[in-house]
Amino acid sequence: MTTIVEIDDLKKVYDGGFEALKGGSLDIREGEILALLGPNGAGKTTLISTVCGITNATSGSVRVGGHDIVTDFRAARAMIGLVPQEISLEPFETVIRAVRYSRGLFGCKRDDAHIEKVLRDLSLWDKRNAKTMELSGGMKRRVLIAKALSHQPRVLFLDEPTAGVDVELRRDMWKVVAELKASGVTIILTTHYIEEAEAIADRIGVISGGQLLLVEEKDALMQRLGQKQLCIELQQSLNELPEALADFDLDLCDDGASLVYTYDTAAERTGIARLIAALTAEGLNVRDIQTRQKSLEDIFVDLVHNTGNKEDAA
Ligand SMILES: Nc1ncnc2c1ncn2[C@@H]1O[C@H](COP(=O)(O)OP(=O)(O)O)[C@@H](O)[C@H]1O
Ligand SMILES: [Mg+2]
């Protein structure tokens, strides 16, 4: 597996002292779709802008195709297409001229065949002579993608491509992203919709409070989201977990007054009956039992409390 973007201990402190990125490291694999998932204000746009060299990092480094984004900016930037979060287009410009112009900005020779292909792939060819202000929000978003693809980048960053977009357009956008991946482009997108990351990503990175909390294969992460917890309140407190319960995924809580058992709802056997039998065999009496679904928020909280996991993001 080839690494196409290497992010090493990237930090960003804005003027005024706000630390928006707290030192994340990440290798992006050629050809993958990586979704960076995080709430508003998490630092997603800051991360993307810094990786693309639009914002200067305070420390750390980024290499794209082996080129340093600061010392070898032109070569690194030439490999990148960036679709910004905010739609900004010249209102009176036509679609085709806007896209051609973007290509020119990278010093690339005019290539009408490539521009036509990009516009056709994004279902914009029929609109090529429309002024950008005449387009719907979804079509404008496509023009931004076309502009970002105009110079044939190998890596495409999409910053919240579907924020404020209706369900149908969102699915449309997912299709576009899947097609781009099929054509060999590596895609990094940010989103605050878990369903979006689930629908299209190969890997999911979770970012919160300027920290990259984890980067994991989607399937493994979704499996953790499918976990449930059984909270077992005991009649007598325990100082430690009994040997006989060592096989179970158990945590001692409330100063030993409760056990929390984590299990997979998709598994053939939850292990609950076996656990209850084991508790009885140990002479432990149960006062109350509750279940709760693990949410992405729980996973955030677990990660923040368990700082050791941050190393996994490397
Ligand atoms: N230019 C700036 N100056 C100071 N603070 C900023 C600037 N841009 C963003 N921030 C702050 O950095 C944090 C992360 O912002 P951002 O990267 O836009 O988050 P996201 O894209 O995940 O919503 C926020 O708290 C935001 O207010
Ligand atoms: Mg943002």
Give average pLDDT, whole number: 90
Strand order of the largest sheet: 6-7-8-3-9-10
How far the N terminus sits from the C terminus, by CA atoms, comes to 16 Å
CATH superfamily of the domain at 3-79 and 154-223: P-loop containing nucleotide triphosphate hydrolases
Summarize the structure.
With 314 residues, the chain is α/β, with parallel strands linked by helices.
Note down, in words, how this protein is organized.
Strands 6-7-8-3-9-10 form a six-stranded mixed sheet, with helices on both faces. A four-stranded antiparallel sheet has the order 2-1-4-5. It has a four-stranded antiparallel sheet with strand order 12-13-11-14. It is elongated. Among the domains are: 3-79 and 154-223, 3-Layer(aba) Sandwich (Rossmann fold), CATH 3.40.50.300; 227-293, Alpha-Beta Plaits (2-Layer Sandwich), CATH 3.30.70. With 314 residues, the protein is α/β, with parallel strands linked by helices. The chain has helices spanning 44-51, 73-78, 95-105, 112-121, 137-149, 167-182, 194-200, 218-225, 272-281, 296-305; strands at 3-13, 19-29, 33-37, 59-64, 67-68, 80-83, 155-159, 186-191, 203-208, 211-217, 227-234, 250-253, 258-264, 286-293. The chain is built from ten helices and 14 strands. A hairpin with a 2-residue loop joins strand 4 and strand 5 (67-68). The longest helix has 16 residues, at 167-182. The structure holds adenosine-5'-diphosphate and magnesium ion. The site of magnesium ion has 5 residues, from helix 1. Magnesium ion binds next to helix 1.
